[in-house]
Amino acid sequence: MNVAMVASPSVRSVLASHHPVGASTGCFTSLRGDWPGLVTAAHEVSSYAAELAALQAREFEGLLAFLELEPTLPFNDLSVHAPTKGLRGPDHLRTLLERLPLGIETIVVHPDTLGDGDELAALGSRLIVENMDGRKAFGQTADDLADVFARLPDAGFCFDIAHAWSIDPTMALAGELIDRFASRLREVHLSSLSADGRHIGLTDEHAALFAPLLRRCVDVPWILEAPVSQS
């Protein structure tokens, strides 16, 4: 990743300390729906890792159509963020995710979209479950995620550090999530959050606060969920 584009020395230091850093296509709102353009934009941030994010079910259909063309995806590590809106239940989500090419080995899902059953269990280790912020009714705590992993025993963990901070600014919850699910950790979502819960670029304050826990998240991609500040 070209960390020289990051204005703050604190943020630059955190990102420079970790090789597998990439961007979510959700950073590039002006290109929404333009999948070739989104891939190019993510590649300009990092040639190593990227996350293709399509949070609306209708938008996800567009992503599936793009992937059916078998495009060149120039990343060592690639994930897809499953839709969280416009779904007609867990069976609809399963139907969409089963259409992803087998080459997509990492699929980020939200716990509140999964229902109470094991509809997605057949996707096995391709699934990684993300911890939630306070806007969701479920999925924030380690016990919540333990319930999900009991139903999806092969699934991995996507650690959204800003979500954990929003629930517990002392970072005790964040530490508990890493303590309990370190063996499942496959991806980190990295950003700060605005007062209304939107992902924003990592701030100096959060760069310093998050750094001790991020040092425990080695050898997995850190995915930026908001544009870094420009110098």
From TrEMBL:
Domain Xylose isomerase-like TIM barrel intervals: 118-206
Name this polypeptide is given: TIM barrel protein
Organism name: Svornostia abyssi
Lineage, top ranks: Bacteria, Bacillati, Actinomycetota, Thermoleophilia, Solirubrobacterales
